[in-house]
Every structure is written in C-alpha cells, then in structure tokens.
Amino acid sequence: MTQPSTSTDPATAPVAKDVLDCSGLLCPLPVYRAGLALDRLEPGDVLELVTTDPGSLEDIPALARQRGDTLLSFEDRGISQIFYLAKGGAS
Amino acid sequence: MTVAPDLHAVTDQSPGAAAVPKRKRIALVASKGTLDQAYPPLILATTAASLGWEAGVYFTFYGLDILHKDRFEKLKVASLANPAGPIQLPNALGALPGATKAATKMMQKWMTRARMPTVPEFIEMSRGLGVRFFACSTTMGVMGVEAADLIDGCDIAGAAAFLDYAAEAEVSMFI
Q1: From CA B109, how far away is CA B112, in angstroms rounded?
Q2: In this predicted complex, what is the ipTM?
C-alpha cells in the first residue's frame, strides 16, 4: 500500500467532487458525515474533508481502510486537517 | 415489530452490497441505562456502520431504557457513587434531592457545547445506517416492559439469539 502524500500543494491537490467541512465536530461525527458523503459519490470520485478533531488524524485513515476507499493525501495544519479520499470500487 | 427475528437473514439491503459479499460485524451489549453510559454503544454502533460494518446492539437490563419510548429521552447521570461524574459531590450530598438532575443538566450542557448529538439523535443516526437493535426478552419480562413500550423496529431476542448473531461478529463488547 502506498503512503499518502502528506502535503497538498494546490497545484497538485486532487480535484474533489464534494467538499465536507467538519470543523468543530468531535468523533464520531466527522467519520459519520464522511461516510454519508462517500456513500453519495461514485467510485473514483474524490471527497475533500476538513476536520479539527485531533482524533481525525487516525480516524480518517481508518475509515478509508475499513471502507475500501483510498486516502490520496492529507495535510495537518495543526488546528485543522484536510483529507482527500477517493471512493473505492473503481475498476 | 418482529418477535422472532431471523438472525441468519441477509441484513445488508444497501445498494452495492452485492459487490461486498461479507461485511465485518460488531455485536455490542448495552447494559446500563444512564445518560453517560448510553453514549458509548450508540457511538460505536454508529461508527461501525459508517465504516461499512454490520452493527447490532443488544439492550439488556437497565440498558433497555435506551429503547423505552417513555424513557429514552429522559436518561439521567447518577450523582451518587459516581466520583468521575460531571458534578463532584461526596456521596452524602450526591443523595440530596436535585443532585441527579444537576449532574444530568451539566452533562447535557457539555454535550451541547461540544455539538454532540443527543441520545435520541444518535438512535436516529444509527438506525438510518441500518444498525440493528435487539431488546432483551428476559429484561422485558422481569421489568414488565411490553413490545409496545419500545421504539419501533426493535427485534425482541433472548441470549441465544444474540449469541448466534455475535458468533459471526469480528468485534464484540459489553458496555
């Protein structure tokens, strides 16, 4: 499994189909809302997810692993984190 | 209300389920009926379902209050014999009238401030993701709870039926 990139240079950031801001929300809400958002996407679509819960640094990679989605990249900005998740199931 | 749930039935009716033949499963036991102890099983079940797992919660003994129509919106935090509670009181004071109400209000305030859903909201969220709720039939008999007293959509089940469900689970926890 390739490690996700840890920086999101705007020039190379994945193009997101949907953006979800979970700032201020604690576990399990970022995972819950991200799960619902990913359910609405098609395989291969990218979700941009913003969180502030420090637990998200472990939770969102776990969400991707368990669901079979791919964490393309993430950026830890200290008070917030940005994740790019590609929905799994693409052929 | 299903009185005799078929626990071998395929529970995953969601679109795309056919592409994933076997999903992970979590089987939880919720045995406590205080507000603080209602959260962990509902949070874990909601999270598991968000991860794409099957999730089922067996509500037994005081935990059955979480499914009780007249009680699930009025769960309380114990002020007595709860040294880690929201209001730190010696037991002699924790027994005073109003202490339980004060501890409950305090926890509700914490939860609201942290933008955490209420217990009824977590029930809605988890049900929306297909989490199964099992009501312990023995608890119902012992405590005089009828099927009509429970929120809609619960499966009434005994220990063997729950263990049958839990036997297929990768994760099991007693709370």
Answers
A1: 5
A2: 0.88
